Amino acid sequence: LIATGTLRQVSSRPDNKRYHRYRGVPVSNTASAIEESFRARQDAAAKYRSELLELWTTLNSTVPNSKKDSFQQADLERVDPKIIDFAKTHKHQCAWIPTSHCTPYGIPDLGSVSQCLTVIDGNLAGICLCADGTMLSKSCGRQTPTRCSEICPTLHKYPSHKTLLELYGPHPPNSKKRPKGVITTLTISSRLVPFLRTLRRFEESFNKRYQYPYVVFFDPSDTFTAEYTATVESAVAGNVNFVSIPTRDWRVPDSVNLSRVLLKQHEHIPHMNSLSYRQMCRFFSGPFFRQPALKGYDYFWRLDDDVSYVCDIFYDPFVLMQEQRKVYGFTMLLEEFMETIPTLHSVVSSKINMSTDWSHFLLNSTGGYTGCHFWSNFEIGSLKWFRSPTYMNLFDILDSSGGFFYERWGDAPVHTLLLSQAVNSSSLYYFESIAYIHSNSFHVPTDLTTCVGHSAPQYDAYGSNNEHSTCTNQFAHLASILE
Fold first, then answer.
1. What is the 3-state secondary structure (H, E, C) of the chain?
2. Of the candidates 435, 355, 295, the residue with the CA atom closest to the CA atom of residue 7
3. In whole angstroms, what is the distance from residue 222 CA to residue 244 CA?
4. From CA 247, how far away is CA 460, in angstroms rounded?
5. In whole angstroms, what is the distance from residue 17 CA to residue 382 CA?
6. How far apart are CA 66 and CA 99, in angstroms?
7. What's the chain's Rg over C-alpha atoms?
8. 416-461 pLDDT, tens per residue?
9. CA–CA separation, 66 vs 390, rounded Å?
10. Which residues are catalytic?
11. What tens digit of pLDDT does each residue of 66-83 get?
12. Is 373 within 8 Å of 334 (Cβ atoms)?
């Protein structure tokens, strides 16, 4: 990524439809230019990280609420009232503004308009002011406000890391306001090396500053030694609880006829021949939330043993979830292999008579499920909601059908569909600011200043260079209504 100066994802699938891809901005091909550009980025990022660390230290020793109030007030005082109204009314959309209102002004976190065009093709006209700050004069012309929404891209600016730190900085460890958050992992003892790599990077990026506890789950057939636990504990700052999953929560339910479970290798679809993978997906879809080891926690942050957080996270996502009263946080929306969930949506739609303000975004023109889902190897969720009768009753309906084993239902589409039936968009949060890698898919934030050594990408939150991806449009529509 650094040597070429280009940030791009390559999918292992022939059709390249499963993964979002992000284009980077190439730097000079000469070695000296690459080295000079890299050093400049590294110096700038290091300075910014130092400032964030200093700010984090200050916030950690002060009362967070007073800092937040003063920051928000000072920020608003610098903004033209018309822009405040625009931001409140058209958060992630766009607006048609008559030229009489055009003046050079700045729009915090919405971009900047530096000039206004008053004549288009010899006629006076308004402009389409998009939420990302762009002004589309030639495309817009004398169009109506309705036409504006079709022209403006759905992309929008996101708060900088500094803004997030100001708003959602640390609470003192003993504070009653500190969220009851926990980092959760499911692993096997033979994967100690990649697990340690993940833990060390996660600690360096985030948890060494916040020291949230870990709960590490194991398949009941697996064993972990005292040496294993000591090695893991030495890699983290917080406490670690090692838990063997109760057999009743891991085994195949008695209601499932194993002779009907087809375990067959597939050329392009992973884990089709794995029974344990099906057990894992069922565990994360339901029994996970009932685990006694999670009792006393309000939020979980899932950390798979083969992921990487490549940029620093100075603010506290748990604080954000708590203060904004969010139920579920995600970074990516991808497509599922439909061969693994042929009946999932029909089971949901036939037995669950519920819907929300975004459930239709997951459907195609014929009313079928597109397969788009929140990729659950990164997820931050409210345990209170997932443990509630609302969710667990929905899970029990799916579990009784046997689809986790007869097909190969993944926990990601299950979470997504059940959330879409019971949780409105105001309870979802897109963690755009968190840089994240899993397998050969990754998420790149707008604010890369906490990422030493990374080239600045031409950011595309919805993978528009993958024009045929169903989730590209679905995610854009969903993001347009998320706060």
1. CCCCCCCCCCCCCCCCCCCCCCCECCCCCCHHHHHHHHHHHHHHHHHHHHHHHHHHHHHHCCCHHHHHHHHHHHHHHCCCHHHHHHHHHCCCCEEEECHHHCCCEEECCCEEECCCCCEECCEECCEEEECCCCECHHHHCCCCHHHHHHHCCCCCCCCCHHHHHHHCCCCCCCCCCCCCEEEEEEECHHHHHHHHHHHHHHHHHHHHHHCCCEEEEECCCCCCCHHHHHHHHHCCCCCEEEEECCHHHHCCCCCCCHHHCCCCCCCCCCCCCCHHHHHHHHHHHCHHHHCHHHCCCCEEEECCCCEECCCCCCCCHHHHHHHCCCCEEECCEEECCHHHCCCHHHHHHHHCCCCCCCHHHHECCCCCECCEEECCCCCEEEHHHHCCHHHHHHHHHHHHHCHHHHCCCCHHHHHHHHHHHHCCHHHEEECCCCCEEECCEEECCCCCCCCCCCCCECCCCCCCCCCCCHHHHHHHHHHHHCC
2. 435
3. 8
4. 44
5. 30
6. 39
7. 24
8. 999 999 999 889 998 988 988 888 787 877 677 777 544 333 333 3
9. 37
10. 379
11. 333 332 333 334 334 444
12. yes
Whose structure tokens read 């991806």?
469
Place of tokens 């690459």: 34
Lookup: tokens for 221: 């057939």
Lowest model confidence (mean pLDDT) among 11-15, 86-90, 375-379:
11-15
The percentage of residues in the chain with a pLDDT greater than 90, rounded to a whole number, is 43
